[in-house]
Design goal:
The structure holds 2 protein chains of 2 kinds. In chain A, 76% of the residues lie in helices and 0% in strands. Chain A is mainly α. In chain A, helix 5 (88-123) packs antiparallel against helix 6 (128-142), helix 7 crosses helix 9 (194-229) and helix 11 (244-281) runs antiparallel to helix 13. By secondary structure, chain B is an alpha+beta fold. In chain B, helix 17 (460-470) runs antiparallel to helix 18. The longest helix of chain B is centred in the last third of the chain and has 18 residues, at 475-492. Classes of the chains: A mainly alpha, B alpha+beta. At the A-B interface, helix 2, helix 3, helix 5, helix 7 and helix 9 of A face helix 1, helix 5, helix 9, helix 15 and strand 16 of B.
Chain lengths: 334, 531
């Protein structure tokens, strides 16, 4: 298992370098100039423009800039935002817990509903349940996040007043961020009602962000279960007279889980992409919103550093999924 | 269902609006995150709302809801006869805010004023480059480094600005956000502690609100400054809940999660007006959107061609389609709310037949041109693409084939100023200080050709009038000069003036005393919340 782990870890190094090159070069391929944008409609004097480019080190040859950037990363310096003038790593780690908390709740929502829905659809294959569940999953998968988010806000917040419109917690509560995770911080704060408020603020964004993964997981679980349910050992288990719960819950589901775990792992990337829109709609101060703003402002250091840090997160998740395979199916780790 | 409802009811009961019974908290659903809290290096209104208009003051201030100046940190001032010396008498007893991160030991003095400007003007000032890549956009853009010869301390409460040449808009410039007055004592402490960058993160000034905390991209908190020289504000706490999506801002207002928000969607205005719990303030914006021809390139170098094209464009249709009618067709290059606006100007009538005839008379046949559409929405032009499509259709009716082009925003700004640019550019401007010079010279002066003057139009007669007005102190005299300049502009038609947009501010009816500001800034120092 250790060799398997180290092997996987070594693969990450070239991947990381590849991502750093892509992150560095792609943003520079886009037209636009961060310094020009600082002055908006007001025209900046060319001399001053050149001076600021020089101050930012952006007048050096591209390759020199890249290696200076890479050198910075190796010493833990991801650079400083051109706009806010704040260190990138500090901003990332301030905002990342919000994205992580939202993504975790969303994926939990997707797993808790998606797997049972997929299992049920597989067991009831061809029935009205199957069609209804898979039809709903297809609708969920096709739903544009932006529209879906607004629709839920209008219904549950605007008309029914069941949930708050946006934000992470009611503005009434103000306590220092200890962990950055609002659910934990609200508990630590000891303020009455803070935790309930944090939970209520998570409901709609989690549903919106979790809808596409939910649909994917449900469909994947269904097809994996269908395949497993037709296996001989399942027939044998049934013939032995095992109760249906044991046949499906233990014999079939465990074997069907491998592709489902892969799917869940892949959904993390999908969720980070979805977080961009979800965070914008729900005024959720996470990295998705931060990155989008930075693209519009051509804040190169933020985009580079942010992409790299996000890629690192996805790589860690993929590594974890690989390790989980090993746990679920011992044949893989050998 | 019942359980859920009671849960929600409990949550609602805990909202800040009920909490406001003990301390009056105003929640403003702002449209974006501030770039920083030092107003000097930035140009965005979002940043100014969160810094200069809450935490800081200036020597002179704009009156609420107006572009007229009133005393701020300077209680009086004197301008020398030659217009070169401005002597300001500072208000005595003005205290800087006491915060958790700094306790001032002295009141405002001339050193603070000198520090606040010199850091922007002098390259050798240690604060001039206190953050890597910092640039003093407004100060440089307004030409302050060349304009100001020296800033001298006469005594603790008297400071004198000496200019290199007379500049009538100088006083109005000092009311702008970048001219906010910072505490030198706080700056010295930060420098001594090696924490200079904190000036941009934890602001401290003399303004109505004291900065408390900023949770990035989420919430900014302020409390009323108990020592404010103009009297403590009626609200106790001010919260900016950053909400970037205009539809979500509307939902938050309707759900009682905020009291007031800026920049509503044009399509939401009627519904907001129909809500009995809400009020919607509206005001003509201090802005203009225009289509600038390149007057250096044929056939747009001919006045009669530009005039003919102006007659071909149905500006009312643009206002109706882009702003749902919530804007005003523009006939002058300055907005009607600005002093010296010439209401007597006769706009070009929309007349495709006359336009076609005029083009033929000018010898223009089968003209093909480009119309540039901005890729972003700005207050003066919400949807340039839509406007460009309408212009394209209008031009087709007079036999002109228009192709719409667009570029990424920074690229658009860069390419549109080039002298050999092909085509007419849609762009606009929002006033900085309420002075006509900020439109007429900045956008149409000869010095701005190849820069802000997108029409590349240099008319000596116009330029002389505007320059003369800039150096004239008397406003009545300046008005006459600017009105003559507007007449020349209309006759020469370097632009098709498109619109002046209206700005709306929806708010809860419990909000009292809020006044919309023509300069587009949002101030809460006069606001109260009804119990």
């Amino acid at each position: 298992m250790l060799r398997f782990f180290i092997g996987r870890l070594l693969v990450l190094i070239p991947t990381f370098i590849g991502v750093s090159i892509i992150a560095f070069s792609f943003i520079r391929l886009l037209p636009g100039d961060p310094v020009m944008l600082l002055s908006g409609e007001r025209v900046m004097d060319p001399g001053r423009h050149a001076q600021i480019m020089h101050d930012l080190g952006m007048d050096r040859p591209m390759i020199v800039q890249y290696f200076s950037y890479l050198g910075g990363i190796l010493t833990g310096d991801f650079g400083t935002s051109i706009v806010t003038k704040l260190p990138i790593a500090r901003q990332f780690f301030t905002l990342f817990p919000a994205t992580l908390e939202l993504s975790f709740c969303a994926i939990m929502f997707a797993i808790i509903l998606g797997i049972p829905a997929g299992v049920l659809a597989a067991i009831k294959r061809g029935t009205v349940y199957d069609q209804a569940l898979m039809g709903t999953a297809l609708v969920g998968y096709s739903m544009p996040i932006f529209w879906w988010g607004l629709l839920l806000i209008i219904l549950f917040s605007g008309i029914l007043h069941w949930t708050p419109v946006s934000g992470r917690i009611d503005l009434l509560y103000f306590f220092p961020a200890v962990t950055g995770f609002m659910l934990i911080d609200s508990l630590l704060s000891g303020e009455k009602g803070a935790f309930a408020s944090a939970v209520s603020h998570l409901i709609l964004p989690s549903i919106v962000l979790g809808t596409i993964p939910l649909a994917v997981i449900a469909r994947q679980t269904r097809s994996a279960m269908l395949e497993v349910l037709s296996e001989d050992y399942v027939r044998t288990a049934r013939a032995k007279g095992l109760p249906p719960f044991r046949v499906i819950g233990i014999h079939a589901l465990r074997n069907a889980m491998i592709p489902v775990i892969t799917t869940i792992g892949l959904q993390v990337g999908v969720m980070l992409a979805g977080a961009i829109l979800t965070e914008s709609i729900f005024s959720w101060p996470g990295i998705g919103k931060w990155m989008v703003d930075s693209v519009f402002k051509r804040d190169y250091p933020v985009i580079q550093g942010g992409l790299l840090l996000i890629a690192a997160v996805i790589m860690v998740v993929n590594l974890t999924v690989d390790l989980l395979y090993g746990l679920v199916n011992p044949r893989i780790r050998h | 269902m019942k359980k859920k409802t009671s849960f929600a009811a409990a949550l609602l009961a805990a909202t800040l609006l009920s909490g406001a019974a003990s301390a009056k908290t105003l929640v403003y659903c702002s449209e974006g995150s501030p770039e920083g809290f030092d107003p000097g290096p930035y140009t965005a209104g979002t940043t100014f709302d969160a810094s200069s208009r809450t935490v800081y003051n200036r020597l002179v201030e704009f009156k609420h809801g107006s572009t007229e100046l009133e005393p701020g940190l300077a209680e009086s001032w004197n301008i020398s006869d030659d217009g070169l010396e401005y002597t300001f008498k500072l208000r005595p007893g003005v205290k800087f805010q006491t915060t958790e991160f700094f306790t001032p030991t002295r009141e405002l003095i001339a050193d603070d004023v000198i520090f606040s400007f010199e850091r922007q003007l002098k390259a050798d000032n240690p604060w001039n480059k206190y953050i890597a890549g910092i640039s003093w956009e407004y100060s440089s853009g307004m030409g302050f480094p060349d304009l100001i010869k020296s800033i001298d301390k006469v005594d603790d409460l008297t400071v004198k600005f000496v200019l290199n040449h007379p500049e009538a808009p100088f006083l109005a410039d000092l009311g702008m956000d970048f001219a906010s007055i910072l505490s030198k004592e706080y700056a010295d402490k930060l420098a001594a502690d090696g924490k200079m960058e904190q000036m941009n993160q934890m602001p401290l000034g003399t303004g109505p609100f004291t900065f408390v905390a900023y949770q990035q991209d989420a919430v900014i908190r302020y409390k009323a400054n108990p020592d404010y020289w103009n009297g403590k504000t009626k609200i106790d706490d001010l919260v900016f809940a950053i909400t970037t999506d205009a539809s979500v801002r509307r939902q938050k207002l309707e759900a009682g999660e905020c009291h007031i928000y800026p920049y509503p969607n044009a399509a939401d205005i009627e519904a907001l007006k129909g809500n009995s719990n809400l009020a919607v303030q509206e005001q003509a914006g201090l802005n203009v959107a225009y289509l600038a021809y390149n007057t250096l390139i044929a056939p747009f170098d001919k006045t009669e061609v530009r005039q003919a094209l102006n007659m071909a464009i149905n500006k009312q249709a643009i206002v109706d389609a882009v702003f749902q009618g919530q804007a005003q067709v523009a006939k002058n290059p300055i907005p009607p709310t600005m002093w010296s606006y010439d209401d007597a100007t006769k706009d070009d009538a929309y007349d495709p037949d006359a336009a076609k005839a005029a083009l033929e008379k000018a010898g223009v046949k089968d003209l093909s041109m480009k119309v540039w559409a901005m890729p972003v929405s700005r207050p003066y032009m919400l949807n340039a693409r839509r406007a460009a499509e309408l212009i394209q259709a209008d031009l087709a009716k007079v036999g002109v084939n228009a192709e719409i082009v667009t570029y990424e925003w920074a690229e658009y700004l860069k390419r549109s100023k080039e002298k050999d640019r092909d085509g007419a550019v849609i762009l606009g401007w929002t006033g900085d200080n309420g002075d006509p010079d900020n439109f007429l010279d900045t956008l149409l002066g000869c010095e701005a050709v190849g820069g802000n003057n997108r029409a590349q139009w240099c008319n000596k007669e116009f330029n002389d009038l505007v320059k003369k007005a800039k150096q004239t102190a008397d406003q009545g005299e300046r008005t006459k000069l600017y009105q003559q300049a507007q007449a020349i502009f209309k006759k020469e038609a370097p632009w098709a003036t498109l619109d002046h947009s209206t700005t709306f501010m929806p708010m809860s009816k419990t909000v009292q005393g809020y006044t919309q500001d023509p300069l587009g800034i949002h101030r809460f120092d006069n606001v109260d919340i009804a119990e």
